[in-house]
Amino acid sequence: MKAVVYYEHGEADRLIYEERDKPTIGEGEALIKVEACALNRLDILARRGVVKTTATLPHILGVDIVGYVEEQKGGNLPIGTPVLVYSAITCGRCPACLSGRENRCQSLKMIGFHTDGGYAEYVNVPVRNLIPLNPKIPLEEYAAVPVDYTTVWHALIERGGLKVGESILIWAGGSGAGTVATRLAKLVGATVFTTVGSAEKAEKAKRFADHVFNHYSGDVPRLVKEATGGRGVDVVLDYIGSATWKKSLECLSVGGRMITFGGVSGFDGDVDIRAFYTKHLTIIGTFFGTRLDLLKSLELVERGLLRPVIDSIYPLKDARSAHIKMEESRHFGKILLKP
What we know:
The chain is α/β, with parallel strands linked by helices. The chain has 2 domains: 2-146 and 308-338, Quinone Oxidoreductase, Chain A, domain 1, CATH 3.90.180; 161-285, NAD(P)-binding Rossmann-like Domain (Rossmann fold), CATH 3.40.50. 26% of the residues lie in helices and 26% in strands. It has helices spanning 41-48, 95-98, 146-159, 176-188, 199-205, 220-227, 245-251, 273-278, 291-302, 319-327; strands spanning 2-6, 15-19, 29-38, 64-72, 82-85, 88-89, 109-110, 122-126, 130-132, 167-170, 191-196, 211-214, 233-237, 252-260, 282-285, 310-315, 334-338. Strand 16 (310-315), helix 10 (319-327) and strand 17 (334-338) form a beta-alpha-beta unit. The termini are close together.
């Protein structure tokens, strides 16, 4: 089969399109013929070696996968069934898994990060990670769903408790997660502030958000305070990390809460401790989400309320170009790869 692999960490030129052996499957696994795989910032961080993984090199990236059942051992889905892949492999036996909080499993592994993933014509995954589809949108678009939708739903709804009438600042509203978060927050009934990095992206973001700021040229905390009469917002969703951490806390109102599930600009952040406790602030850490989070968000997709925003679709052989586009933040929505 054709696949994109890297043999060493580094820039996008480390990605090599080559012939690889088709994966073999064991008991409880399925072989999936990949229809599409979406890019994530995690792919960039893994390729560059910024975030360490236990995966051996050479490695095949790709966490967001949609495709067809080609072969299985222990499953009962008909061959050819279109399926979405829940991205987390968990033990299924620990208290977290048994209580439906599998994203807190201590042995959690991410397909495409800890194991070989979807930058290939075929991938093997556990049968229990398959979600059969009756596609309501083009099948390739479902590749945009597993990571961003699951993570954002868990962050805003389950952990963040976002409510109608609240206000929220979402950094990087043109990213895959940002395009999901801004629209989900609007569906909840919140007033949405978001940031982007260009005038072109601002025009697109205005379709989803009430207030759009340029995070490169604007003083975001000042702009947020001006727009809220000096109060600040109830919630900030910050997955940028070091570059925005302090600004996020400045944007919060008294009693506000900040939700974080990433750090693409770095993982160190300063906290003004006195301001933190005198303003009664809360910081909420969250990672990925559960199968139920995925199913709930998937329902909104299939009802036409939260259809994926697709920036571009690249042939698998052009994965280098897709990575460069993401690293340069020239996308609005998700970038897909198709074998």
